[in-house]
Design brief:
Number of domains: 1
Number of strands: 19
Number of helices: 2
Largest sheet: 18 strands, antiparallel, barrel
Shape: globular
Distance between the termini: 34 Å
Radius of gyration: 24 Å
CATH class: Mainly Beta
Structural class: mainly beta
Order of helices and strands: HEEEEEEEEEEEEEEEEEHEE
Oligomer: single chain
């Protein structure tokens, strides 16, 4: 009888797994960096930075006809910077649940995705996963999704607070004290996209509410809202491609801010791809009460305006804006390796206090090599700063190091345990 029960149980499990799909995969990504001017001008008196960090992830997914479930566990470790030898606990507390969501099918093209998740659209200019950063970017949100044919519509909602107070008697029960990097208390957005054979266009309507307090700095007083509206257009025909970003921001603390970007790509041959583009981001006019400076909020900002992260990567908010002109070339060296070369010239959209606008030129190089089961990436960037860059970053040219550069190497292993 026990054998019969065991056989029935095994058959039941086989039927369950036949109707569902279980995946288990991981990531091991150590990266070494030499920083001698990364993120800003380094003074000559300062020593360059050098260190190694590792991101590890364990991802598991479960899919049925009615829903999908996904969990991604993550830890970011700096070699030697977290724990002394035989420390009985994690001193850095870097372990986190990076994603945990359920996507439930509602029928007729509708579904809803609930939980901690990556929100990424188009070229990731306003919403992106920020995968370059070891910690990545996620959101706790609920998204109602509609997808039929070549049209999709997402409506997203989020509400953040520091803790749960079930009684609700305290006036601070829904206050959100987390600040920095445009951490929001509330978010509502609608994203629409229509695709055709060689053209696609999307529309984003985004509202963020940031916690506001009364004069005492303690009592919550509603939110300051910022609206971001805009479109991304993408055209591809044969070897030619073009893309446009056009966004504006307005609200309680900002008015008349804008971002305009244009990119062109051309496949010159089977081994050479060329690119050119520009981006104009409005800066702040100090003669007005509200800021006129645009900030790209939750995008993968490392992807834009140079890999050395001088602009809009935790910096350059409410500043002189940016005018970025760039050209690039991608060379396929062989079946497993490639080289990307990119040059960018920066100017302020507004003048600095001295009247200067020119900021400098950056050169980025990235070499990629694929092996069996893993990949290696090596990068080098060099900043040729102009007078305006020294003024912008608050370091005089005389006090700055003669060379401003950054180099890195990264190994990427993504094992698939079950698929």
């Amino acid at each position: 009888m026990k054998k019969i029960y065991l056989t029935i149980s095994i058959l039941a499990l086989m039927v369950q797994f036949a109707q569902a799909q279980f995946t288990l995969d991981g990531e091991f990504r150590p990266r070494t960096e030499y920083r001698n001017g990364f993120g800003g001008i380094i003074p000559d008196a300062a020593d360059p930075g050098f260190g190694i960090s590792t991101r590890i992830r364990l991802n598991t997914g479960y899919s049925t006809e009615n829903y999908k479930f996904y969990v991604s566990l993550q830890d970011v470790m700096v070699w030697g910077g977290e724990n002394r030898q035989i420390l009985p606990y994690d001193q850095n507390n870097s372990f986190a649940v990076f994603q945990a969501w359920a996507d439930i099918k509602l029928g007729e093209g509708f579904s809803t995705k609930l939980g901690r998740q990556v929100i990424s659209y188009d070229d990731q200019r306003i919403f992106g996963g920020l995968d370059w950063a070891q910690q990545g970017r996620n959101h706790d949100a609920a998204i109602l999704k509609y997808n039929k044919g070549k049209f999709l519509l997402d409506v997203g909602l989020a509400f953040n607070q520091d803790y749960s107070n079930p009684t609700g008697f305290q006036s601070t029960s829904t206050a959100y004290g987390t600040t920095g990097y445009f951490s929001y208390k509330t978010m509502q957005y609608a994203y629409l996209k229509q695709s055709w054979d060689s053209f696609s266009g999307s529309l984003l309507l985004l509202n963020n509410g940031f916690q506001k307090y009364e004069a005492d700095g303690v009592t919550p007083d509603g939110v300051n809202s910022i609206q971001t509206l805009g479109t991304h257009l993408d055209y591809k025909s044969g070897d030619f491609g073009a893309a446009l970003n056009a966004f504006t921001q307005m609200g309680d603390t900002v008015d008349g801010a804008y971002l305009l970007g244009l990119e062109f790509t051309y496949k010159a041959s089977a081994k050479v791809g060329l690119g050119a583009g520009m981006e104009l981001i409005s800066g702040n006019d100090t003669t007005t009460a509200d800021s006129e400076a645009f900030f790209p909020l939750y995008g993968t900002n490392h992807k834009f305006n140079g890999f050395m992260d001088y602009f809009y990567v935790g910096n350059h908010a409410n500043n002189v804006g940016l005018f970025d002109i760039h050209v690039s070339a991608n060379f396929k060296l062989n079946e497993t390796s490639s080289l990307m070369v990119k040059a960018l010239n920066f100017s302020g959209e507004q003048e600095l206090a001295s009247g200067e606008k020119s900021l400098g030129t950056e050169l980025d190089l990235v070499y990629s090599k694929a092996f069996k089961g893993y990949a290696l990436k090596i990068g080098y960037s060099h900043m040729f700063a102009s007078d305006g860059m020294y003024e912008l970053k608050g370091v005089t040219e005389a006090a700055a190091a003669d060379v401003q550069n950054w180099a890195w190497a990264m190994l990427v292993i993504k094992p698939k345990f079950l698929n």
